[in-house]
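Attaching the record inline, Q. Sequence:
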Amino acid sequence: MCELLALSANTPTDMRFSFRGLARRGGQTGEHADGWGLASFDPASGDLKIIREESAAAFSPLAAEVANHDLKALYSLAHIRKATQGVVALENCHPFHRRWCNQDWVFAHNGDLKGEIPTEGAYQAVGNTDSEAAFCWILNQLSQRFSTAVEGHALFPILNNCSAELAGRGIFNCLISNGQWLYAFAGTKLHAITRRAPFTKATLADDDMSVDFSEVTSARDVVTIVSTEPLTSDEIWQPLTPGESMLLQDGEVVERQLPC
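Structure, as predicted:
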C-alpha cells in the first residue's frame, strides 16, 4: 500500500527533513515506487501548491529538489504510492485536490477499499483509484449537509462518521487539510510526534541525515508530524489506536476521538 505524511505547525515550517526520509521509502528502502506527491499551503496567502509525479520518489530529481527546497507552510501533506487499485498514472497520484465551498481541500489515503463507492453528487473521480473515489464521496456527503464553509470543529464528527464508514469497506487511513486545519484518521496505522521546546536532535530512519531542531526553531514553535511509520530512529513516536482520529491546528491536537 502507500505511506502518508503531514505537518501542522504554529509557525511557517518546512517539511523537507521528513519528506527526505519519506522519499527514500519510495523505491529505495521501501516498495512504494508508483508515484508521489506533496501539497503545501502558503502561510501568507493561503494559496495551495501541489507537486505530483508518477515515478519513484527515491530516484526522482524533482523529489530530490523538493527535499532540498525551503517550502515553508503551516499545513503540508505528502504521499508515496504503492498501487493496489488503479494504474500507475499522474491522475492516480496523491494528494488529490478539490474545491469545496470556495476552499482548497487536499486528501491522501493509505489502504485498500472493497466494493463500489457511491458516486452520486457533484464530485467525481478523474482517475480510477478507490482513494480518489473516497475523497469525492466525503465531499459529496459534506455538500448534502452544508452550503457554506464551516470550521474544523463542526466538521470533525462528520469526517469521523465518513471515515468510519469507509473503514468498514477495508483499510482506510487518511489525511485531509484545507490549510486551516489537518484531519487524520487511523483505520489501521498512523504515528504522530509533537516537537516543542526544549528541542533536540533527530536522525532519519531511512537516511544518514540528522537535524538539531534547537538550532532552527524558537522557544514558541510547535510542530506535529503525522506519518504511517515513524520517520526518525531516535525520537518517541506515538502510535494512534486503530479507529482513532485527530484534528490539528497550529501544531496542536485540538480534537481527538478514540474508538468505542
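The radius of gyration is 17 Å. The domain at 3-257 is CATH 3.60.20.10 (Glutamine Phosphoribosylpyrophosphate, subunit 1, domain 1).

More tomorrow.
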